[in-house]
Amino acid sequence: MTEAFALLADGIGITGFQIADEAGSLLWGFVNSLDAQIRRLDRSVDRISPELRDLQKQQDGTEIKSRELELFTDRARNLGGRRDAFEEMRDAAAAQYLAQTGEMWRPRSGSHTSRTGLLTSASIDARDFMRARENRKMKENLPDGTLIAIAGGKDGDPDAVFLKLDAARRKYPDMVLVHGGGPGVEKFAARWAEARGIHQIVCRPDWNAHGKAAPFRRNAEMMNLLPKGLILFPSDSGITANLADQATGFGIPVLKVGAA
Questions:
Q1: Which one in 54, 150, 202, 231 has a CA-CA gap of 20 to 30 Å to 2?
Q2: What is the pLDDT of residues 61-110, one digit of tens each?
Q3: CB-facing half-sphere around the CA of 179: CA atoms within 13 A
């Protein structure tokens, strides 16, 4: 998988080749195609799980029922094994995507987690995190640790972001980063998490559902996670100011960096 991805990246990036400018999108799509197979197989397992539970309840000691359960169990295991194989390939390709582009691969929506344990910095969608908090069985979607939120403007100093987050990590070694997935400060924060192997909870605005109110609803979503604190970098946006107000309303300490 590593060799295949490297060949693809090298081919796209040939000097003078017209699609070189699309390298990031094409490489993202390659990883996404593997992720799509994982999600498809997950749905297949979900579809047969109720039947498997019913067969377990119907066991009456007869050979017919026992054989039927055995066949269904083998089918579920086979699907699970194929799913995990695709996940290992996706994670290997995602690592190469990071090496080639400097960015962590993320799906367009939902979470980027791994049952096979190859990811060092999982990116968790906030809605998945809240569902997982309510359902402890979804452990792969629920990173344990102290939640620290960060926000700021589109411009910023990556070194300053790294310094503040390193300080937060020294205070809370088990920290999990919470941010809005935006440009500038939040993008620098995501890169910090990737470099340090820190899990991230990403609270993106849902523009389709909430329209112009989406960033403010996102702010409420972030604060509903009840982070231990909010690191706030300078921003001219009223959205960032609203986030600070919401944090104060929740009693969450706000560390303002510079003239935020």
A1: 202
A2: 777 767 777 777 777 778 778 888 888 888 888 877 777 777 777 776 65
A3: 29
SS3 assignment, position 230: strand
- 147-151: strand order across its sheet: 123-125, 200-202, 176-179, 147-151, 229-232, 254-256
User: What does pTM read for this prediction?
Assistant: 0.55
Query: Is it the case that residue 143 has pLDDT exceeding 70?
Result: no
3-state DSSP assignment of residue 225: coil
Q: Quick check: 28 and 97 in contact, CB under 8 A?
A: yes
Domain residue limits, the chain: 2-101, 123-256
Give me the residue label for tokens 């310094």: 163
B/e letters for 22-50, b = 16+ CB within 10 Å, e = fewer, are ebeeebbebbbebbebbeebeebbeeeee
Rg (CA), the chain: 22
Decide if 26 contacts 19 (C-beta within 8 A).
yes
Whether domain 123-256 has CATH 3.40.50.450: the reply is: yes
Distance in angstroms (rounded) separating the CA atoms of residues 260 and 257: 6
> Measuring CA to CA, which residue among 64, 63, 5 is closest to residue 33?
5
H or E element in which residue 100 lies: helix 63-101
